[in-house]
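Bumping my old thread because nobody answered last time. Still need a sequence for this structure:
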């Protein structure tokens, strides 16, 4: 049999691509080497970390939350298996290697495909002198599977993974110390959010050493170079969260002429096609934010392009969230990016302490910052830190997706009392004036 589409990888990029392709009437298979479907997101990423982030706010029973994490994860991975059956997607379990642009070897057999979608995702970056053993030197995967709460955790890299997992273990009683190379945390966010989050996490007792570079390691002791000289830090465990890299080797890509860039990202054109036109690449394997929902959008788009449709992905309207407390969420351009582009803009910020609902729920830390272009008044970016920011960002995402102006957002009626009113107030502050401050 010749498949219309074979997807390699079953993360939120790959499994969504496979289901969409099948919905469009294409004979589809998905090759996944792990025993369960769902990739990093479902098995060792977004989903288990959010269970631990939720449960650690309410309880200190580590064994119980680990059990619930396993149950939630297996529910979802089984759910993807069910969706594959329902949509008649064949799951081939095994490691795929491309033999030609239309032939893939898996488990010693050749599978023929008219189109291929590469969705193999990414893997944690390790430091050469700190290889992961997942017992003492942990990647995010190991940090999600510890058998007990460590007394002291060193976290190398204060990006999203570092601050989320650091928060989990701080809440469970660990001493958590960050060593971050840059002079700020979470560099993907607007600087105002990075600063506010740093302040908040510091108040929660986490310790940050910014502008510090790890030079070498001896067991779980790190030698670190900071602005005032060299120092040593020892932890019971070390979480290394210095980024992720595309999982693009060992797939036979080079052998069939698929180009990668210097960092290993597969090169694609505006329609997600690699240098082999019937082979597409999506998600963490290609340039752009390494986010599950970005991968899913690209998966849907790749399947639709194969089916002859003309989908458009609006990359400016991809939200980004850190599930700390307070939550951090953003969509559109940061103020730094707007300045770099030389755009003329106005900025307004509204604090949650002036929002009635935030005060009712006793969670008033944070603010919403909104930026709009001066002439067109179009919203360019929305950045927030505060209660339910992960959900509130959807309203801002719709506004950016629909190319809304500050006035359109300010003229929208939001229910009272809700956190959303802070978004209306922030947009009123751009070209008019907020009411409650
Ligand atoms: P990241 O890129 O967010 O942060 C890595 C941090 O490590 C940066 O602040 C960087 O300056 C620092 N760093 C790099 N090398 C270093 C070194 N040698 N010593 C000290 N610090 C160093 O990467 P992270 O947190 O590993 O996450 C990987 C990817 O996964 C990101 O793209 C992120 O967006 C995604 N992710 C998304 C989540 C979400 O949407 N909530 C949750 C977790 C991960």
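Sorry it took so long. Here it is:
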């Amino acid at each position: 049999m010749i498949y219309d589409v074979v997807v390699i990888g079953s993360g939120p990029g790959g499994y969504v691509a496979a289901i969409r392709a099948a919905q469009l009437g294409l004979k589809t298979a998905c090759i996944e080497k792990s025993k369960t479907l769902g990739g990093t997101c479902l098995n060792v990423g977004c989903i288990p970390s959010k269970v631990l982030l939720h449960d650690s706010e309410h309880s200190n029973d580590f064994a119980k939350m680990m059990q619930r994490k396993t149950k939630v994860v297996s529910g979802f991975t089984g759910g993807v298996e069910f969706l594959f059956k329902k949509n008649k997607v064949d799951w081939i379990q095994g490691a795929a290697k491309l033999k030609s642009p239309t032939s893939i070897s898996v488990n010693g057999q050749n599978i023929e495909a008219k189109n291929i979608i590469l969705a193999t995702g990414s893997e944690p970056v390790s430091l050469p002198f700190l290889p992961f053993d997942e017992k003492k030197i942990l990647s995010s995967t190991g940090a999600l599977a510890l058998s007990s709460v460590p007394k002291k955790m060193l976290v190398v890299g204060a990006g999203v993974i570092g601050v989320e997992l650091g928060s989990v273990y701080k809440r469970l009683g660990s001493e958590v110390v960050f060593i971050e190379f840059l002079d700020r945390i979470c560099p993907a966010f607007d600087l105002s959010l990075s600063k506010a989050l740093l302040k908040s996490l510091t108040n929660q007792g986490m310790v940050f050493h910014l502008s510090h570079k790890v030079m070498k390691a001896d067991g779980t002791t790190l030698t670190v170079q900071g602005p005032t000289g060299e120092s040593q830090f020892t932890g019971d465990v070390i979480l290394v969260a210095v980024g992720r890299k595309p999982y693009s080797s060992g797939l036979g890509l080079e052998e069939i002429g698929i180009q990668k860039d210097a960092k290993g990202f597969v090169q694609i054109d505006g329609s997600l096609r690699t240098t082999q036109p019937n082979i597409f690449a999506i998600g963490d394997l290609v340039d752009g934010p390494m986010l599950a929902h970005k991968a899913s959008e690209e998966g849907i788009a790749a399947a639709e392009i194969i089916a002859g449709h003309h989908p458009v992905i609006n990359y400016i309207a991809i939200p980004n969230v850190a599930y700390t407390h307070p939550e951090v969420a953003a969509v559109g351009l940061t103020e730094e990016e707007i300045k770099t582009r030389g755009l003329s803009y106005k900025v307004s910020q509204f604090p949650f302490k002036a929002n009635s609902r935030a005060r009712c729920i006793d969670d008033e830390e944070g603010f919403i910052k909104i930026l709009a272009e001066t002439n067109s008044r179009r919203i360019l970016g929305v950045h927030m830190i505060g209660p339910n920011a992960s959900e509130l960002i959807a309203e801002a995402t719709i506004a950016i997706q629909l190319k809304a102006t500050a006035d359109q957002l300010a003229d929208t009626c939001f229910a009272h009392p809700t956190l959303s009113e802070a978004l209306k107030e922030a947009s009123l502050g751009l070209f008019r004036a907020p009411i409650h401050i």
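Residues 166 and 176 are 6 Å apart (CA to CA). Let me know if any region looks off to you.
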